[in-house]
Amino acid sequence: MRVTRQSTRPSPWRRAIIAAAAVAVTGACLLAVDAQAALATPPGIPSRATAQSQLNVLTVKSEGSLTGYSRDLFPHWITISGTCNTRETVLKRDGTSVVTDSSCAAVSGRWYSPYDGATWYAASDVDIDHVVPLAEAWRSGANSWTTSRRQSFANDLSHPQLIAVTDNVNQSKGDQDPSTWQPPLSSYRCTYSKMWITVKYTWGLSLQSSEKSALQTMLNTCSS
Q1: Are the C-beta atoms of 61 and 208 separated by less than 8 Å?
Q2: d(CA 141, CA 64)
């Protein structure tokens, strides 16, 4: 009896399906890598160990009053270089393929918001968040600062105080501290806690006990 051996090579239609699947997987991987490459990364984010040390020495006290507070007491956005102000500088820093016009306004680009995982293609959809809100800073000690120091705080590009994020997410945060608001994307809460802690530490601001507890819980999720 003659035995017919079946070919082990996939048929043309099967090869097409395999190729399409490979392209889809590769595309998904590239998108994931691209999103990470575009992730906003403000300077000065400390390690978990450093953030823990800073949290341990922050002054815990009752939250102060908002009496006398005004955003105008924290002048922003100020000119940073040429025609570029603080907002425009952060948009260029945190975005990908950002193109600006002669006045430094972003006319195109891509922004990945680490707070919620959304990607935006128009600068108008993006806010520059003060990680530690101005009103929160006022209640934590900035009420006694000079206007010059408050201006430096509101335009701080040397520490993780400014970050480009989805506008309505930033607006939902308002002036809340981590005891009542945390990034919707839970995987970013570790980084957010480290940013918040080091900003308060750097600027000598106090925190409430509930705020410290929330920060500690978030920090505990960090691997490094």
Answers
A1: yes
A2: 8
